[in-house]
Amino acid sequence: MFMQALFQATDTSGLTLAHTFTLLGMNPEAQEKVYQEVKQSIGLDSPICYTDLPYLKYTERAIFEAMRLLPVTPAIERYASTDIDLGNKTIPAGTNVLVSVFNLHRSEAYWKNPLEYNPDRFLPEEVSERDPYAFIPFSGGPRNCIGMFVCSKRQLFLIWYNF
Q1: C-alpha distances in angstroms, 68 versus 8, 40, 105, 135?
Q2: Is 145 annotated as a binding residue?
Q3: Per the domain annotation, does 82 fall within a domain?
Q4: Residue 43 CB neighbour total at 10 angstroms
Q5: Does residue 88 lie in a domain region?
Q6: What backbone torsions phi and psi does residue 94 show, to the nearest 5 degrees?
C-alpha cells in the first residue's frame, strides 16, 4: 500500500510537471512570467526555502492551469451507496459513476475559452466566481487525494529548480 501511494505521488507529480513545462513552452509569454517571478522573488542563484513558495503566485496558477487542461487522472470513479436525485434523473443506489475530469475541465459551462492556456483563470477573484467542483484534479469531497496539500508546493520547488 505504501509503495503504491509513493509511486502514485511521484508519477502524478512528474506528469504534472511535464505537462506544465510543455504548456509553458507552447506559451512563451506565460513562460517568461514564471521565469521573471522566480527571478524577482527568489533569485536564480540562491537556494529556495519553503518560505519562498507563497511568493510564486503566478507559477502556482500556471501549474493549476496545466492540471486543468491535462489532468493526470482523466476520470474519477465513485459508487452510489444511496439513490442520488439529480432533478430530472436519479442515479440508483449500487451504480458505479464515472466523472470525466478531462471533459469537466474543458467544459464551456465553467470555463471561458476552455482550450486556451490561461493561468489567470486561477486568480482569487476568478476562483471565487466558479463552482468549487469545476476544477477537481485531486477529486473532490471527503475522499479526495491526500496529495493535494503537498503537491503544488513540491511542484513549485521543482519548477524553480529547473529554471
Answers
A1: 18, 27, 5, 7
A2: yes
A3: no
A4: 12
A5: no
A6: 90, 0
Let me know: does 99 contact 76? Beta carbons within 8 Å: yes
In the chain, what's the furthest Cα-to-Cα distance?
59
Full DSSP string of 120-143 = GGGSHHHHHTS-TTS--BTB-GGG
Q: Where are the beta strands (DSSP E) in the chain?
A: 75-79, 84-85, 90-91, 96-100
The string of pLDDT tens digits covering residues 10-59 is 567 788 889 999 999 999 999 999 999 989 988 888 766 777 778 889 98
pTM of the shown model: 0.81
Of the candidates 67, 23, 48, 5, the one whose C-alpha atom is nearest the C-alpha of residue 156 is 48
Give the structural domain span for 119.
2-72+114-162
* Within a domain: 80: no
Read off the pLDDT of each residue in 75-101 and give the average, rounded to a whole number.
94
Q: Is residue 89 part of a domain?
A: no
Cell 439513490 belongs to 83
Spatial distance between the Cα atoms of 124 and 107, rounded to a whole number of angstroms: 20
* Cα 158 to Cα 162: distance, rounded to the nearest angstrom: 6
Pairwise CA distance, residues 95 & 43, whole Å? 53
Domain count, the chain: 1
Q: Do you know the residue count of the chain? A: 163
Phi, psi of 30 (to 5 degrees): -65, -40
